[in-house]
Amino acid sequence: MATILAVDDSASMRQMVAFTLKGAGFSVVEAVDGVDALNKAKAQVFDCVVTDVNMPNKDGIELIRELRALPNYKFTPMLMLTTEAGADKKQQGKDAGATGWIVKPFNPDQLLKTIKKVMG
Fold first, then answer.
1. Which of 24, 33, 49, 110 could join 78 via S-S bond, C-beta 3.0 to 4.6 A?
2. Would you list the domain boundaries of the chain?
3. Across-strand partners of 20?
4. Strands, DSSP E only, in the chain?
5. With a threshold of 0.85, does the pTM exceed it?
6. Please, are residues 36 and 60 in contact by the beta-carbon 8 Å criterion?
7. Residue 51: what pLDDT?
8. Strands across the sheet with 27-31, in order?
9. pLDDT tens-digit profile of 68-104?
10. What is the distance between the alpha carbons of residues 101 and 52, in angstroms, rounded to a whole number?
11. Sign of the four-CA dihedral 110, 116, 119, 120
């Protein structure tokens, strides 16, 4: 079973993502911000990371950049889940190493389809 790291400073958003993923048979670990996520990612290897962009302490773009620098996460799919649909933010995410982009409010089927696609 694949394990996914779900990162969002909103508890309700984390719960929605976790509920959707668990319902599809994934194992989910939640993190409250980029710092928490980075610590968890160093302690355990995840098959995919779904992260919010705007968070306190360390944002999603910074988190992805730092995860990409770790040997275990060079090729791990990383999706950004955000209300930001602007092209500049998407480009920053791509430059940091994001695999894909999902705009909130997300559709659960779309989230699962995207995750299955990037995890191939």
1. 49
2. 3-118
3. none
4. 3-7, 27-31, 48-52, 78-82, 100-103
5. yes
6. no
7. 97
8. 27-31, 3-7, 48-52, 78-82, 100-103
9. 999 999 999 999 998 877 888 889 999 999 999 998 8
10. 10
11. negative
What's the pLDDT at 34?
98
The span from the CA of 14 to the CA of 20, in Å, is 10
How far apart, in whole angstroms, are the C-alpha atoms of residue 61 and residue 104? 16
Task: Answer for the pair 116, 4: CB distance below 8 angstroms, yes or no.
Answer: no
Distance CA 18, CA 51 (A): 12
Tokens of 104: 């909130």
Does a cis peptide bond (omega within 30 degrees of 0) precede residue 105?
Answer: yes
Domain spanning 3-118, CATH architecture: 3-Layer(aba) Sandwich (3.40)
Listed residue (25, 13, 38, 23) closest to 5, CA to CA: 38
Of 61, 58, 109, the closest CA to residue 81 belongs to: 61
> What does 5-38 look like in DSSP terms, one character per residue?
EEE-S-HHHHHHHHHHHHHTT-EEEEESSHHHHH
